[in-house]
Amino acid sequence: MRKLLNTLYIMQEDIYLKLDGLNIIATKAGKEVARVPFCNIESIVCFNYMGCTPALMAKCAEEGVSLSFVAPNGKFLARVQGAIRGNIHLRREQFRRLEQKEFCLNLAKKSITAKVTNTNNFIKKANREYDNLSIFLNDTIDKLSNNINTITHVDNLDTLRGIEGESAREYFNIFKYLILNNNFTFNTRTKRPPLDEVNALLSYLYTLLALDCESALETVGLDAYMGYFHTDRSGRPALALDIMEEFRCYLVDRCVLNLINLRKISPNQFEKEPTGAVLMNEDARKIVINEWQARKKEEIIHPILKEKVQVGLLPYIQARLLSKYIREEMEEYTPFVIKL
């Protein structure tokens, strides 16, 4: 099993990164403020505008360490990638099979079924654990259960996208009832820009999850930009967005609710811009990153492998299973579904 290494997050906007031998050096105003061994890092995410030296970029490219640049508000900016080392035969097979409508539909139905099932199981768990929520949640549970059954009979991607969108709306309509901290309010999902603190947290962590999924796909040799459910768009990692559907609720939404309900974060750690966008300040980003890293280190028994794994490895495991399915080393692709 692949080892889960650390992700280095650069939170301060005035930090500049450089390479010193086998160490990553963080400098501020020309002075060293931190030193991290390169061998302990599997990815770097920079929320700064200062950047890093070409030598560090080259080292990341050579060693397959993902280096991404994200605006402080969580908007993805760019990613450094070296020479593509993936198996060309795997990528050719990926391109060939993802041109087949039935193949894409079959994969998409599995992934969206997994997404809606994980969402529904998450709501059912909350329904058991929280008092007096049944009146709000039972109807949504029934609707999502019906949608799961309907997906079986879907014969085109557009209809499937409609069901996925409807399921997401139903879920976010009741998401406010899962928030047990009166200091936070949530009415609907808003993305670009997020218009409240809860949406700011969701968008921020969805960005980090997408980066993890993109890195996992490239690690196993797949092209992250040719997917089976999300439409192709220049610069859009469609396949990464496809496989992250299985993890959204289990990894991100649970993390957001823990931050809010356990009062690890407060509304005064957010700022509202003239455009109406709500963004986290530096303190909030540090808290969120720490929670996200802790979440990724949690261990579960993987429902397919039947082995104990860290949840941060889930994108890599599913990317590996997907590559085996594309190469026809497996009869079916089994998406990640967490049991109740």
Structure in words:
The chain has 340 residues and is α+β, with helices and mostly antiparallel strands. The protein folds into two domains: 6-80, Ribosomal Protein L15, Chain: K, domain 2, CATH 3.100.10.20; 88-326, Up-down Bundle (Four Helix Bundle (Hemerythrin (Met), subunit A)). The chain contains ten helices and eleven strands. It has helices spanning 54-63, 88-97, 101-129, 134-151, 157-174, 197-220, 238-244, 248-261, 282-297, 314-326; strands spanning 6-10, 15-20, 23-28, 31-37, 41-46, 66-70, 76-80, 270-272, 278-280, 299-301, 308-310. Strands 1-5-6-7 form a four-stranded mixed beta sheet. A three-stranded antiparallel beta sheet has the order 2-3-4. A hairpin with a 2-residue loop joins strand 3 and strand 4. It is globular and about 60 Å long. The chain starts with 5 loop residues before the first strand and ends in a 14-residue tail after the last helix. The model has no long low-confidence stretch (mean pLDDT 87).
